[in-house]
Each structure stands twice: as C-alpha cells, then as structure tokens.
Amino acid sequence: MTNRDSSSTTTQHAGSAGGDPAYARPHKNRSPVGAATPASAVNMGSGGAAAHGDQLDSMLGSLQSDMNRQGVSTKTKGLCAACNKPVVSQMITALGKVWHVEHFTCAHCKMTLGTMSFYEREGKAYCEQDYHNLFAPRCAYCSGPITDKCVTALDKTWHPEHFFCGFCGCNFGDQGFHERDGQAYCREDFLKMFAPKCGGCGQPINDSYISALNRHWHPECFVCWDCQRPFGNMSFFDHDGLPYCEQHYHAKRGSLCADCQQPITGPSIIAMGRKFHPKHFTCAFCLKQLNNVTFKEQNNKPYCHPCFSKLFAGTKMMD
Ligand SMILES: [Zn+2]
Ligand SMILES: [Zn+2]
Ligand SMILES: [Zn+2]
Ligand SMILES: [Zn+2]
Ligand SMILES: [Zn+2]
Ligand SMILES: [Zn+2]
Ligand SMILES: [Zn+2]
Ligand SMILES: [Zn+2]
Which stretches does the entry tag as region Disordered (predicted)? Predict the structure, then answer.
C-alpha cells in the first residue's frame, strides 16, 4: 500500500479515468487480514490520528456509501485472470477474461496495457511494439518488422519500398520483376543482363526467338547473311556458323554454276577454273554438252572440237 493509493481513496472520484485501483481496496480489505493497511492509510489521510477497529469500520462504511452514491458498484465483477483476486469497479475485459487494470499487461515486457490498444496472439496480449517485434514478418532488406503493407516474393517478405530492382533500384511497375539467383530485377535490366543475345544483332531477345546454329535469333534477324532475305519454309545453310540461303551459301563456297549461277548440289564439272552443272558445260557455239577433258577453250569460253575448228582453225593456221 502506497501513499498515493491511500489518499486516492478519499480524494478521487469514482469513474474517473486512469483506473486507479484504490477503489477496490476498501472493499477487499474489509477482511480481517488486510484491515491494518487501510487503517494506517486512512489515518494518514485524516491527519495521523489513531484509529481503532470500530472507527475504521465506520470510516470504511461511509466511504462505501459515498462510492455507491457516485454510481460505482463495489460488487465484484469476477476474478482477475492474472492475480485471481476479485475485480471491483475499474476493470478490463479482454481476451474473454476480466482483469485488474494494472494486471492487464504485455505478455513480453509486462508493461501495463490498461486501456491502450493491444494485440492478441495465442490468448496473450502484447503491446504494439513487442507484438510487431516478435511476430511481424521481417523485411528481407532492412530486417525491420513489417507492420503495414507487405510484399511476399522470392520466398521472403519485404517492405514495399524495400523491394526493388537489384540493378537500377526501381520499385517495379506493372511489369513485375524477374528473378535471378535470389535477386529481383526489373524486366528491362533483367533482359539486358540475362536474356539470350541474338546471334544476328547481338541485342537481348525478349520474346519469341529462333534457335539455330547453337544460338538464339530474333525471328527478323534470322535471314540470309548475304541477301537479308528470310528463309520462310526454305532450309538455310550454315557457312562459318552463319545462315545463308542456298544461293549465297554456294556462292560463299564457290559452288555456283558458272553458267546459270545456280547452286551445284550434285556432280559438277570443273573447267577453266570454274564450276558448272554438267549439262551447263556446253559449247559456246552449238550448245552441245561437253566434257571437261576434250573441250577447246577460246577467250575463256568452251567449244566442241568441230566448232572450234570451224571458228578458229583459220586464225590458228594463219598464225
Ligand atoms: Zn489482478
Ligand atoms: Zn510489451
Ligand atoms: Zn525494409
Ligand atoms: Zn532495374
Ligand atoms: Zn537480332
Ligand atoms: Zn541470300
Ligand atoms: Zn548451271
Ligand atoms: Zn559446238
């Protein structure tokens, strides 16, 4: 029993804020065991005069009637869930139980919660700070408790403002984020850093791609390296790891017919340092097919023997 408690029994009005527990004392202390304590208290409050048991009882009795007049019931409202003693007047009802105001405390720091708002978890009450510190999800970036909006990503929780692109620091727009090795990136940076690069233009590939020649390609970049024409349904040809149409593949490889300029895929005739389709290696005059052994050459053109003789024998003989 403190001075504050004892004096408050005579000076404070019932029902006032603060939940002074002194209202409960006189009632409780009418039991013989506790009778001495309020006695000394009242004595102090009334100038220190000695009080006998009868006087004390009558003083307490008048106090009792004062309180009743002020509308405070001294009837017990149940047993305090903390101390198991009766609760009279000022009480807290919380967690489905009744508490002395001063006994309704934070389960962690023991601070009196009184009428402050509190948080409940598994039947226990916590002050706001402890509740957040103990139970709020933690931000994977700052380790602080997340008490408001929470982002869940990468199997972790984050303050929304602490979940940002690992490269540019933006907070991700509608595009969302992309993950690589536990780090989040905005789409732009992710593609810059990790998207496959096009085998044609070297830029990142964001959408559909063609996989060929052990590389990825923008569809629009997968064209003949020479004429830039797309292949469509045609097959392409690999020359030094680059795609070519059939025509330019053979051109690259020197395997175009010197006569028709079309690729030679079957047998060929090599003559005069050039390649020909066999049927296109013909006499330049009569167009008869030649073989590469018996033709005659004049001015870089092939001729059959008869035509050669007819056309050039005279000149030759005149020489
Ligand atoms: Zn209590
Ligand atoms: Zn606390
Ligand atoms: Zn944070
Ligand atoms: Zn970024
Ligand atoms: Zn490209
Ligand atoms: Zn081409
Ligand atoms: Zn030809
Ligand atoms: Zn001929």
Answer: 1-50
* Structure confidence by residue, pLDDT tens digits, 245-302: 988 988 888 888 988 988 888 899 988 888 999 999 999 999 999 988 889 999 989 9
For every residue of 130-163, DSSP letters joined together read HHHHHHSPBBTTT--B--S--EEETTEEE-GGG-
| Ligand number with the minimum distance to the CA of 127 | 2
Average confidence (pLDDT) over 301-315? 86
Expressed in angstroms and rounded, the spacing between residue 87 Cα and the centre of ligand 1 is 7
Give me the domains of the chain, ranges plus CATH numbers.
Answer: 3-77 (no CATH), 86-135 (2.10.110.10), 151-192 (2.10.110.10), 210-253 (2.10.110.10), 269-318 (2.10.110.10)
CA of 116 to the centre of ligand 3 (A): 27
Q: How far is the CA of 211 from the centre of ligand 5 (A)?
A: 12
Nearest ligand to the CA of 113 is 2
- Ligand 3 centre to CA of 137 (Å) is 10
Residues 146-168 have pLDDT tens digits of: 988 999 999 999 999 999 999 99
| Residue 282 confidence (pLDDT) | 94
Q: List, in order, residues 6 or more apart from 274 with CB less than 8 Å away.
A: 258
Which regions of the chain does DSSP assign to beta strands (E)? 76-79, 86-88, 91-94, 97-100, 119-121, 124-126, 151-153, 156-158, 177-180, 183-186, 210-212, 215-217, 237-239, 242-244, 269-271, 274-276, 296-298, 301-303
